[in-house]
Model the fold of this input.
Amino acid sequence: MPHIAYKGINLYFSVLVSKRRRTIALRVNRNGTVAVAAPSFVNGAIVRGFVKRKAGWILEKQKYFAEVARKYPPREFTSGETFPLHGRNYMLKIVNVISIETLRSISNGIRAPGIEKYGYKVEGKRLKIFINQQAGKEQQDIARKAVQDWYTVHTEKKVNTVIAKYASALDVLPLKIKVVDQRSRWASCSKTKVLRFNWRLSMMPVSVLEYIVVHELCHLKVHDHSPRFWRIVKSVLPDYEKRRAWLRENGIIIALMF
Done:
């Protein structure tokens, strides 16, 4: 893997070359890895020089992500942990059940397709995950999947509600809406008008989820982030900057939960 030396430290990075790019871009991922996107006409020496000029900033970002990861370790999906849903915390309770029939009887539960290893339901401020006691060592993975399903259902419901609220005002209509598992984006809009939303959005306050959905709806009108795009966003959400600031400050904490 290519790398540079900076103040006695070897900084490793990956390079993605594209014929369509005209400039070099650099990103430090949440796990500390460094990714560079470069035009095909740029040689390795220029890329290394670019990374070296950014080395101080890279180390600061890596230190920041490491500190956040230490302060907010990933969930272990055991009883007693809390999970946020639109600004309200729910305490997880793992309940072992004896049979598949018991899982089937749980109201508003969701089971793994064809496996029926788990179900869930909310009681007050408690999220109960029911797991077939025969799961054994798989219990943690099953609990994780159940919590993810819980979030996915809420995200899909809330996203559709926000789209119904704003799509007509913006005079746009998505071709398809998908709630997906993606690590690097909260949402995206394809050129074919397919909107994809990260299932983790329901961990956020409703106002922030609403900003993300409106953001993607506006991309159906303007695909870039030009001044015109932000004027459209502001016409719908005058306080969008406040919502975006929350996302920038707290998004990494949400991403590190899973």
Summary: The longest helix spans residues 139-170.
